[in-house]
Design goal:
This protein is an alpha/beta fold and 616 residues long. It has a domain of 185 residues. The protein contains 15 helices and 13 strands. A hairpin with a 5-residue loop joins strand 5 and strand 6. Helix 13 crosses helix 14. The longest helix has 58 residues.
C-alpha cells in the first residue's frame, strides 16, 4: 500500500501531486521510478528579509491532513478542527481524488468531495497516474457509498491482513506523523484523549504479541469497574454489610418461627403463652431499658446545662481599670508590665476560643444523643403501653385484636428484613462475580507476562532492527521493550542507555524533543522494515523531519532513510524547509534531486502555497 497521486477538480488552485512509487523498471512505461527515490515536500525561503513572510504556513502539514481526509478520516460536523471543515466557505466546491497503489499491484482511486464528504466513490484500475476528475457518475465502480460502508470497502481493497482484526484506519496515523505525533512513541495525538484499550492492543499485535489478550484484559477491567459501582450503589440501600449475610439469614428464620407460633395461637384463641411472654419482656427488658435510658438522659441533661453555663461566662479583664488602680495609689505603671498584660489577655482569648470550640462540638454531640434517647424512650413507652393493654384486657376479643396488631408489626419487620436480605444477596452475588472476574483478569495478566517473557520472531526482529537504527543514527544503545506495570497493564518503553554494559543506567535523552522525534521515526522505520514483505502499510509521511536536529544526525538519518527505501521498498514522504537541510563538511546544503521533490512550496505568495489562494 503506497500513495500514487493526489489531485482535485480545481487543478489551477491545487496542482496534481505525483508520488514516487518505487515501481520496478520492468513494469509499465510511464514515469519509471526507483525504490531509493524519496518524496520530498520542499519549502523554500525566498523572502528571508521580509518579516511578514512565513515559511511555516505554506501547506507542508496541510498536505498530510489532506491525505488523512482522503483515507476517509471522519469529519465531525460539530467539533472537527480539520482545515477543510473550518474553511468550508473556501473548499465547498472542491472534489479531491487520491490514487493508491495496492499490495495486489493494482491501483485504486477514491473520490471524496468536501460538501458531501460522507458519499464516497471508488474505481479500481491497472494503470497509475490517472486523471479521473472528469469521470461520469456511471463510470465509477462504487458510487455514493456511505462512510461506514466505504471504510469497510476500502479495507477490503487494501487487504492489510497483517493488522487483522483491526481495519486500516487504526494504524494509518502512525505513518502520517504530524509534529504533534512525535510527543509519544506509541500513543500518537489521535489517541491522546482515548482509553489505552483503543491503541495498546493494536501496538501489541504489531509487535507480534496477542493483542486480543490485551483487549480482553481491558474489557474485564471495565466490567469490574461497572460491577464495583453497582456494588457501592446497592450497599448504600442497605443497613447491613456483606459480613451480616449469614447472620441475617438466621435472624429471619427465628422471626419466622416466632410469627408461626403467634399465628397458631391467634388461630386457636390461646393467649396464655403469649401473655406470659409479654409479661416477662415487660419486666425483664422494657422496664430495665426505660430505667437505663432515663438515667442516661438525666446525666446528659446535667452535662448540657453545665456546658451551656460555661459558654455564657465571658472573660472580663480591662487594662484601663488596672492602670487606674496604679494611678490612684501613685505607683508608676510600667510599659513592660502593660505589654505582659496584653500578651496574657491575648493568650486567654485564644485559649477561650479553642475551649469554646471544643465545648460547642461536645454540646452538639450531647444534644444529638439526648434527642436519640428521647426517641428511643418514646418507642419503648408505646411498646410498654401496648403490652400492658394486652395484659390488662379481660375481653378475649380485645386481647385478640391487640395481639393481632403486634403480629402485624412483627410481620412488617420481617418483610423489611427479608427485603434487606434479598438486596444483600444481590450484593453478595455481585461480589462473587467481581471475584470471578478478578481471577479472569489475573489470568490475562499472566498470559501477557508469559508472551512478553517468551518473545516471538516479529518482536525480536523489530527490537533488533530498532536497536541497530538507534546505534547508526545516534551512536547509542536504544532499547525497545514491553513490560507489565503495577496495574497489570502492558507497557511499551523506549530508552537510551548510558552504558552498553548496564541496564540500570538510562539517560534522559528520550525526554528531549529532538531525540523523541528521531526515536519515533526510527520506531516507524523498524516496523515498516519488519513487515516489508507482508500485506501492510509500505509508506510513511514524517512532517518536519529535520527541524531542531543536529546536522550530523540529519546526514546519518537521511542515509538510513534512503537505505530503507532501497532495501525494503518503502515509500518515504518527508517535509522540509530549505533552512533545515543537512549540510556537508564545507557547510553547503545537501540538496535533494529534482525527481525526489514532488512539490515545491515557497513564501513568495499564492503561487508558492499548496493551495494557490490567500492564507486560511
Amino acid at each position: 500500500m503506497k500513495i500514487s497521486k493526489i489531485y482535485s477538480n480545481k487543478h489551477n488552485i491545487f496542482e496534481p501531486i505525483y508520488f514516487n512509487l518505487g515501481l520496478d523498471p520492468i513494469e509499465g512505461d510511464v514515469k519509471k521510478t526507483y525504490f531509493d527515490l524519496l518524496n520530498v515536500i520542499f519549502a523554500e525561503v525566498k523572502k528571508s528579509k521580509d518579516e511578514k513572510s512565513d515559511s511555516h504556513n505554506l501547506g507542508k502539514t496541510t498536505l498530510l491532513y489532506l491525505l488523512d481526509f482522503m483515507f476517509l478520516k471522519e469529519i465531525n460536523q460539530k467539533t472537527s478542527k480539520h482545515f477543510l471543515h473550518i474553511n468550508k466557505n473556501l473548499f465547498d466546491d472542491f472534489i479531491f481524488f487520491i490514487e493508491i497503489s495496492l499490495n495486489s499491484r493494482e491501483f485504486l482511486t477514491i473520490r471524496r468531495s468536501v460538501k458531501d464528504n460522507t458519499k464516497i466513490f471508488f474505481k479500481k484500475h491497472t494503470e497509475y497516474y490517472q486523471d479521473f476528475s472528469n469521470l461520469t457518475y456511471c463510470q465509477w465502480d462504487n458510487k455514493d457509498v456511505p462512510m461506514k460502508k466505504a471504510r469497510q470497502l476500502l479495507d477490503s481493497y487494501l487487504n492489510l491482513s497483517v493488522i487483522s482484526p483491526w481495519d486500516y484506519r487504526k494504524g494509518i496515523s502512525y505513518f502520517l506523523r504530524t509534529q504533534q505525533d512525535y510527543n509519544d512513541f506509541f500513543q500518537i495525538a489521535k489517541f491522546l484523549n482515548s482509553d489505552h484499550k483503543d491503541w495498546k492492543p493494536y501496538i501489541a499485535h504489531i509487535l507480534g504479541f496477542n493483542g486480543n489478550v490485551v483487549r480482553e484484559k481491558y474489557d474485564i477491567d471495565e466490567i469490574i469497574e461497572e460491577k464495583d459501582k453497582e456494588r457501592k450503589r446497592k450497599q448504600k440501600e442497605l443497613s447491613y454489610s456483606e459480613e451480616d449475610y449469614n447472620k441475617l439469614s438466621s435472624i429471619i428464620k427465628l422471626e419466622k418461627n416466632e410469627l408461626d407460633s403467634i399465628e397458631k395461637k391467634l388461630d386457636s384463641f390461646s393467649f396464655e403463652g403469649e401473655e406470659k411472654k409479654i409479661n416477662k419482656e415487660l419486666i425483664d427488658d422494657i422496664e430495665l431499658e426505660i430505667a437505663s435510658i432515663n438515667n442516661r438522659i438525666f446525666d446528659i441533661g446535667y452535662d448540657i446545662r453545665k456546658i451551656e453555663s460555661s459558654l455564657k461566662e465571658k472573660l472580663s479583664f480591662k487594662i484601663d481599670d488596672i492602670r487606674k488602680v496604679y494611678e490612684d495609689v501613685n505607683i508608676y505603671f510600667p510599659e513592660e508590665l502593660l505589654k505582659n498584660y496584653k500578651e496574657l489577655l491575648k493568650f486567654n482569648k485564644e485559649i477561650s476560643k479553642e475551649r469554646n470550640k471544643s465545648l460547642n462540638k461536645r454540646l452538639k454531640e450531647l444534644k444529638d444523643s439526648y434527642e436519640l434517647l428521647q426517641s428511643q424512650l418514646h418507642d419503648l413507652d408505646i411498646k410498654r403501653s401496648e403490652s400492658l393493654k394486652i395484659l390488662g384486657c379481660d375481653d378475649t376479643f380485645d386481647k385478640y385484636k391487640s395481639l393481632q396488631k403486634q403480629f402485624s408489626k412483627k410481620k412488617a419487620d420481617l418483610i423489611h428484613l427479608e427485603q434487606q436480605y434479598n438486596k444483600l444477596k444481590e450484593l453478595v452475588e455481585i461480589s462473587a462475580e467481581i471475584s470471578k472476574l478478578n481471577n479472569q483478569r489475573d489470568q490475562k495478566v499472566e498470559e501477557m507476562r508469559s508472551f512478553i517473557q517468551s518473545p516471538n520472531e516479529i518482536y525480536d526482529n523489530i527490537t533488533k532492527d530498532f536497536g541497530g537504527l538507534v546505534k547508526t543514527v545516534l551512536n547509542a544503545k536504544g532499547v525497545l521493550y514491553a513490560d507489565i506495570n503495577k496495574k497489570g497493564n502492558l507497557e511499551f518503553n523506549i530508552e537510551i542507555l548510558k552504558d552498553d554494559s548496564s541496564l540500570d543506567f538510562k539517560t534522559s535523552q528520550t525526554e528531549g524533543t529532538s531525540y523523541k522525534k528521531l526515536l519515533c521515526m526510527l520506531f516507524d522505520l523498524a516496523i515498516l522494515r519488519t513487515y516489508a514483505n507482508n500485506n501492510f502499510y509500505h509508506f510513511v509521511y514524517h512532517d518536519g523531519i529535520f527541524e531542531g536536529l543536529d546536522n550530523r544526525k540529519k546526514t546519518t538519518l537521511l542515509n538510513v532513510i534512503k537505505e530503507t527505501c532501497q532495501l525494503y521498498k518503502i515509500q518515504y514522504l518527508l517535509s522540509v524547509i530549505d533552512t533545515d537541510l543537512p549540510r556537508d563538511k564545507q557547510d553547503n546544503k545537501i540538496n535533494f534531486n529534482d525527481n525526489e521533490i514532488i512539490i515545491k512550496l515557497n513564501d513568495s505568495g499564492q503561487s508558492g502555497r499548496l493551495f494557490k489562494m490567500d492564507k486560511f
